[in-house]
């Protein structure tokens, strides 16, 4: 993966504004659209975390925000960058028919509902990956390694009290321990398909939040968890914000038959016991008829 060229940087800026959800500027707080929040709003493991447990503001993300799509479909859509109607894939082929292409990351969050919805965030790598680095290990590693390292931080910036209480403040999870993840690797991209419907508690929280989607502003960050001192401090891969999304405004897309079959996955056996930090506390504070055991917490 080479350093990104001037043409690629210009292409990134153009593609950012071409999605069906408007790109928000600095003065467009909490209106309908998407943006990339400052990395410093997320707290991550600092350089002395294993001795002090101290977290620090994350700083600038490693990847450059490229785009965001809000999609609905009659069937679950996976392998979004391989989909024939995906705008990012088309833009790459049209703009870079030959020669080197930008390396793209995509996080495809599959949301279970009567109709299937997808939150898809795209990022572009602007620096080469150092051999042996944590990102290099993640890209070349097996699914067991990736499932044990990919971390998500979610923050309800604006929304009803009941949703904030359910999710908690800066909720954290190791995604592969909670939800079924599929990793899709191409010559110039890396995609993670995250199926929210594969965990009963995550599905319940989503259904609660979905009723308030038009009034929610949510910040989400992805990073690779550091487990040794040499891997500290943690760095955010990429982060994005979506605000006031209306299900009716989601872009219609039909699943490709071959991709839809390959994207179908079983719930991970361990998923039921690993939940977001604070979700257990939040859900237990909401009036309901059942009972819930406490869950393991992550830092």
Description:
- This is Protein ENHANCED DISEASE RESISTANCE 2.
- Pfam families: EDR2_C.
- InterPro entries: EDR2-like (IPR045096), EDR2_C (IPR009769).
- This protein has one domain (6-252).
- It has ten helices and 13 strands.
- The chain has helices at 6-16, 49-52, 87-95, 134-140, 143-149, 161-167, 175-178, 200-210, 257-263, 279-284; strands at residues 33-35, 43-45, 55-57, 63-73, 104-111, 116-125, 150-158, 171-174, 180-186, 189-195, 217-224, 236-243, 251-252.
- The chain is globular.
Strand order of the largest sheet: 9-10-5-6-4-13
Query: Quick check: average pLDDT?
Result: 86
The number of domains is: 1
Number of strands: 13
Domain Protein ENHANCED DISEASE RESISTANCE 2 C-terminal: 34-245
Pfam families: EDR2_C
InterPro entries: EDR2-like, EDR2_C
Protein name: Protein ENHANCED DISEASE RESISTANCE 2
Furnish the topology, listing elements before pairings.
Elements: H1 6-16, E1 33-35, E2 43-45, H2 49-52, E3 55-57, E4 63-73, H3 87-95, E5 104-111, E6 116-125, H4 134-140, H5 143-149, E7 150-158, H6 161-167, E8 171-174, H7 175-178, E9 180-186, E10 189-195, H8 200-210, E11 217-224, E12 236-243, E13 251-252, H9 257-263, H10 279-284
Parallel strand pairs: 4-13, 5-10
Antiparallel strand pairs: 1-12, 2-3, 4-6, 5-6, 7-8, 7-11, 9-10, 11-12
Summarize the structure.
This protein is of the alpha+beta class and 299 residues long.
Main attributes of the structure:
299 residues; alpha+beta; 6-stranded mixed beta sheet; 5-stranded antiparallel beta sheet; 10 helices; 24% helix; disordered C terminus
């Amino acid at each position: 993966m080479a350093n990104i060229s001037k043409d690629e940087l210009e292409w990134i800026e153009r593609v950012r504004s071409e999605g069906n959800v408007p790109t928000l500027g600095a003065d467009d707080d909490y209106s309908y659209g998407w943006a990339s929040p400052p990395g410093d709003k997320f707290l991550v493991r600092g350089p002395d975390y294993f001795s002090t447990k101290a977290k620090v503001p994350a700083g600038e993300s490693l990847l450059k925000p490229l785009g965001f799509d809000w999609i609905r479909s009659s069937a679950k859509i996976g392998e979004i960058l391989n989909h024939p109607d995906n705008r990012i894939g088309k833009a790459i082929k049209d703009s870079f028919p030959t020669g080197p292409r930008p390396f793209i990351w995509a996080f495809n969050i599959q949301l279970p509902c009567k109709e299937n919805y997808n939150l898809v965030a795209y990022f572009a790598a602007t620096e080469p990956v150092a051999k042996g680095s944590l990102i290099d290990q993640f890209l070349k590693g097996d699914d067991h390694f990736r499932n044990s390292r990919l971390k998500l931080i979610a923050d309800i910036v604006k929304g009803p009290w009941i949703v904030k209480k359910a999710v908690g403040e800066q909720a954290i999870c190791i995604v592969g321990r909670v939800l079924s993840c599929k990793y899709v690797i191409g010559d110039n991209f890396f995609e993670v398909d995250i199926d929210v419907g594969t965990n009963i508690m995550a599905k319940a929280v989503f259904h609660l939040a979905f009723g308030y989607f038009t009034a929610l502003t949510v910040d989400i960050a992805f990073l690779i968890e550091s487990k040794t001192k040499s891997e500290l401090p943690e760095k955010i891969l990429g982060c994005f914000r979506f605000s006031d999304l209306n299900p009716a405004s989601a872009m219609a897309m039909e699943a490709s038959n071959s991709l839809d079959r390959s994207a179908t996955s079983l719930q991970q056996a361990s998923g039921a016991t690993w939940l977001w930090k604070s979700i257990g506390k939040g859900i237990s504070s909401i009036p309901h008829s059942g009972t819930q055991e406490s869950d393991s917490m992550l830092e």
